[in-house]
Amino acid sequence: MNALDELAGGLVVSCQPLPDEPDDPMRDPYVQARVAASVVRGGAVAVRVNGPDDVRAVRALVDVPVIGLYKHGTDDVFITPTAAHAVEVALAGARIVAVDATDRPRPDGRIFADTVRAVRERTDALVLADVSTAAEGIAAVEAGADAVATTLSGYTEASPRSDQPDLELLARLVALLPVPVLAEGRYRTTEQIRRAFEAGAHAVVTGNAVTSPLWITRRLVPATPRAGDAPENRESR
After folding, report:
1. Which tens digits make up the pLDDT trace of 51-84?
2. What is the pTM of this model?
3. What's the half-sphere exposure (Cβ side, CA atoms, 13 Å) at 79?
4. Nearby residues of 47 by Cβ (< 8 Å), 6 or more positions away
5. Rounded to whole angstroms, how far apart are CA atoms 41 and 33?
6. Checking DSSP bridges between strand 203-206 and strand 11-15, what pairing results, if any?
7. Backbone Cα Rg of the chain
8. Closest by Cα among 140, 68, 131, 138 to 111
9. Which secondary structure element, helix H or strand E, spans residue 129, and what is its range?
10. Which phi and psi (to 5°) does residue 29 adopt?
11. Which are the contacts of 161, defined by CB distance < 8 A and separation ≥ 6?
């Protein structure tokens, strides 16, 4: 049984601070490791973790597969953008490495297949391709990806913007690909998770709705009479 087999039929929880909030107090390996331990206690079959420091901290506390990624830079491709990033996060202990597998230019000028090759040559980790379209998913599998996730749907020019999960893309990838397909991207309710499994998802990934107090609070505060007193509103006055 490999790490992907251990994910089958389960919920994966992404344990990461918000990427656009450098001052988020949750941005700490110690904190993220305990968040990960908590969601595993709650039933998560795996966790998705950003950066080698967080991966090492999380691996010390949980025994479920860690999906590692490495967010770096401000270019379009910033989720594990280079082969070097992928290898580093795998060597830190990630059993699966998530990599941007869109057809956008990479900062090192290489292609997704080069990253897959580097991970294969230097580590035992599996490669999860984060995509935004069916064509990208097909190309990723042809390049050697072990699994595909709908992570980037709604976040690229090639995919439709939405506040809802892309269940249509999920169903298309399941029908087209011979590898496991993970549903990821804006899965926030039990109904959305149920529908993803009905569409054939191998596993479902949820994130901010579980692990980001900052994100959750921002979603709730607008319903209060004091919404205008929220920090972001005070700063803009």
Report:
1. 999 999 999 999 999 999 999 988 899 999 999 9
2. 0.95
3. 25
4. 12, 13, 14, 15, 36, 39, 40, 58, 62, 64, 65, 66, 67
5. 12
6. parallel
7. 17
8. 140
9. strand 126-130
10. -55, -40
11. 154
